[in-house]
Design goal:
The protein has seven helices and seven strands. The protein has 198 residues and is an alpha+beta fold.
């Protein structure tokens, strides 16, 4: 795993991941023990509080508020602006997701795009039964893409798993083992919701 991959998994900036690991750049390879130590250090510094009611979509990461954007397109790309140079850059979703620090240029670009297939992941279920039903139907439509309505290994499962944070991987794995893909969809409906950009 590279430092940049760790940053994506922990939903923090690459700069924070370099500080956390003590490595000089995002392409530096990490050993398993270095990854484990970095994750433990990150967990120790994470605030225990849940996001405030004013910003329920905001996750706390390394003292910064980070929003997880979730796209229906696996490697969605938007054109943004580099805050240092003012030049255009590509914002690339990786495996249906892109964490962005609240107030950053990436965050502003995505929020301003108003694209209907990009959503903000929120912890906590939909309160409205109709919204929860529509969420389940969306997940089932995107996950069961095989010829015989089996779960698509890359696109289908990737879309579903993009809803969950790294810290939730153990629960997701146990659910998948015990209850299959339908169980993970149910877990998502019970624990997650989303907010449209516009």
């Amino acid at each position: 795993m590279k430092v940049g991959d760790l940053a994506n998994d922990l939903e923090i900036s690459v700069k924070d991941a370099m500080v956390l690991t003590g490595k000089p750049n995002q392409n530096t390879n990490l050993t398993e023990s270095e990854v484990e130590q970095a994750v433990q250090a990150f967990e120790r510094q994470k605030p225990d509080e849940v996001p405030t009611a004013e910003k329920p979509e905001a996750l706390k990461a390394g003292g910064k508020e980070v929003v997880l954007f979730w796209s229906e397109v696996m490697n969605h790309t938007l054109i943004g602006k580099d805050p240092r140079t003012g030049e255009q850059i590509l914002l690339r979703f990786k495996d249906f997701r892109l964490p962005a620090e609240v107030g950053s240029e990436s965050y502003k670009t995505i929020m301003a795009s108003g694209e209907p297939d990009i959503r903000i992941v929120q912890d906590g279920p939909f309160e409205d039964v109709g919204d929860a039903k529509a969420f389940r139907e969306l997940l089932e439509e995107k996950v069961y893409t095989g010829q015989h309505r089996e779960a698509g290994a890359v696109r289908g499962m990737g879309f579903l798993l993009a809803l969950f944070k790294r810290s939730e991987n153990d629960e997701v794995s146990r659910t998948l083992l015990k209850n299959g893909v339908a169980g993970v969809i149910e877990l998502a409906v019970r624990k997650k919701s989303y907010k449209q950009l516009a």
